[in-house]
Write a structure and sequence with these properties.
Layout lengths: L19 E6 L14 H7 L8 E3 L5 E3 L2 E6 L5 E6 L13 H12 L14 E8 L2 E6 L6 H4 L26 E7 L3 E6 L12 E6 L3 H10 L4 E3 L7 H5 L4 E6 L4 E6 L9 H9 L3 H9 L4 E2 L22 H10 L6 E7 L3 H15 L3 E7 L2 H10 L5 E6 L20 H12 L3 H17 L4 E5 L2 E6 L2 E2 L16 E2 L2
Parallel strand pairs: 1-10, 1-11, 15-16, 15-17
Antiparallel strand pairs: 2-3, 4-5, 5-7, 6-7, 8-9, 9-10, 11-19, 12-19, 13-17, 13-18, 14-18, 20-21
Helix pairs in contact: 6-8, 7-9, 11-12
């Protein structure tokens, strides 16, 4: 395994009086339109900072009103009437009104939509405007998740005037405006002094892209960064915790880290092969070796902190001998070759080295192929050109992705789709939880992927910086209440 240098502490603390912020993130987004890509880095920068939706998801994972100040629901649960804040303008000066909302929702759910989460809107039958600040959304069936779905970054409201240019020049209604993008380096946003709501404290924020753990640590220690959300050097966290000039927050995230397997490619189409791979991996070894003890083992695609979580880590315990037996039963006693495409995050690169070694012990020869993030999105996520990959899925409550035929796992199950359809139409909480539990068991038994660990949300920040979220219930770095203390 590759070794990583821990640098000595040599501080050059940021000048808080400037009221600006330099914050590190591991990945550079492919563009800045959250309605046109699944890349979480887009939402990390833009969610509730640049763009806003009818609702929002707060630090506790709860739905709150945003552009909609309140709403009414019909007795049959099929009609939602949203009442909008008035006098809200997009950064391009155009009005945020019902027509903009209708445009945004119709665009997201259209047959030619490029929205990565198009299924979030499948319950919507129509969107109408009885008045400029009243939006009527009619559903084709009751939905227990509509308000939550409308709080995703994929559901933000965009201006009809500027929507086509949002990838390079994002325009929203949020408290910050886009200023510039220095490709390969950073995205800078500035305070929107015409914002309709409470003004943010910060004048200017630079999101700096650093995926290398050593570089991230050096930037924090030198003061080049005031904070790092999703700090990629877990080996340095204990060192930083002992220095009172820093605050280290270890929170929860929605990041299910998985060894994704192409379920229709070669040996991986065989359930016994996928089960063998799962048995060959020691999750705790990964957590210790790649994450330096930070992380929690998982046995399915679900966050351990959710009340509907089922602990399925015992379904495929570490058992190399069992793995060899399953490979023999599948007709691969002599082993075979696979490729493992690894995106830049340190959790993926480090875990990949360990997993390749473990799989070699049962006869599976793995060739590691490092790829950049844009290449991963194109080759793996879009074109399904891969055998294995490692990635953390940070979207909230996203077990429904296993019901998508065209998703990059290449998994198809009519039984699982039926459970997801039932979940969508179920509103009562305890009934929803039972369906979520059933879904977890189904994909675990089908061994769609090898489920590794839940990614912690680790933030390192200047001790004088206040207001960053500790937990990450959604892909967001919410800057609306971040400020420097005196």
């Amino acid at each position: 395994m590759t070794s990583y240098l821990i640098l000595p502490v040599k501080l050059a603390m940021a000048n808080a009086s400037t009221n600006s912020l330099n914050i590190g993130i591991a990945l550079e987004p492919p563009h800045l339109d959250p309605t046109a890509s699944a890349a979480g880095a887009i939402d990390s920068i833009s969610y509730v900072n640049i763009y806003e939706g009818l609702t929002r998801i707060d630090e506790h994972g709860e739905v709150q009103p945003l552009l909609a100040k309140f709403w009414n629901v019909s007795k049959d649960g099929l009609t939602y009437t949203f009442h909008l804040h008035e006098n809200v303008a997009f950064h391009d000066g155009s009005a945020m009104n019902c027509e903009a909302v209708k445009f945004s929702l119709d665009r997201a759910r259209a047959s030619d939509s490029v929205n990565a989460q198009k299924q979030l809107f499948k319950s919507i039958e129509s969107v109408n405007c009885p008045g400029p600040y009243e939006v009527v959304v009619r559903l084709n069936h009751r939905s227990g998740s509509l308000l939550y779905n409308l709080g995703w970054g994929d559901a933000v409201i965009v201006s009809p005037k500027s929507a086509n240019d949002n990838k390079s020049n994002p325009v929203g209604t949020g408290p910050f405006r886009f200023q510039k993008w220095q490709k390969g380096q950073q995205v800078t946003i500035i305070r929107n002094d015409q914002y309709w709501g409470p003004k943010p404290s910060l004048d200017k924020v630079a999101f700096k892209f650093i995926s290398n753990p050593n570089a991230a640590l050096a930037a924090i220690l030198s003061g080049d960064l005031d904070a790092f959300s999703g700090f990629p050097a877990p080996e340095a966290l204990m060192q930083l915790m002992t220095n009172d000039q820093f605050q280290v927050d270890i929170g929860t995230s929605e990041g299910e880290t998985i060894l994704a397997m192409n379920n229709k490619k070669g040996p991986l189409a065989n359930l016994k092969v996928r089960q063998a791979i799962a048995h060959a991996i020691k999750r705790q070894f990964l957590i210790e070796g790649a994450m330096f003890g930070f992380g929690k083992p998982i046995g399915s695609h679900f966050a351990p902190h959710h009340p509907a979580y089922v602990d399925l880590t015992g379904l495929y315990p570490y058992d190399p001998q069992k793995a060899k037996e399953l490979l023999k039963e599948a007709g691969y006693e002599g082993g075979f070759d696979l490729t493992l495409k690894l995106p830049p995050p340190s959790y993926a690169r480090r875990s990949g080295e360990l997993i390749a070694s473990e799989l070699s012990q049962v006869g599976i020869n793995v060739t590691i192929i490092p790829v950049e993030w844009a290449q991963w999105l194109s080759d793996v996520f879009k074109n399904k050109d891969y055998d294995l990959t490692i990635v953390s899925h940070t979207e909230p409550m996203d077990i429904g992705i296993y019901a998508r035929d065209d998703y990059y796992f290449n998994y198809e199950s009519d039984a699982f789709k039926a459970v997801m359809e039932q979940l969508e139409r179920t509103e009562e909480t305890s009934a929803r939880f039972e369906l979520m539990k059933k879904a977890q068991v189904m994909i675990a038994k089908d061994c769609v992927n090898a489920f590794l660990f839940q990614l912690p949300h680790t933030t390192v920040r200047n001790a004088k910086l206040q207001g960053l979220w500790v937990n990450a219930p959604i892909q967001a770095i919410d800057l609306t209440t971040v400020q420097w203390s005196q």
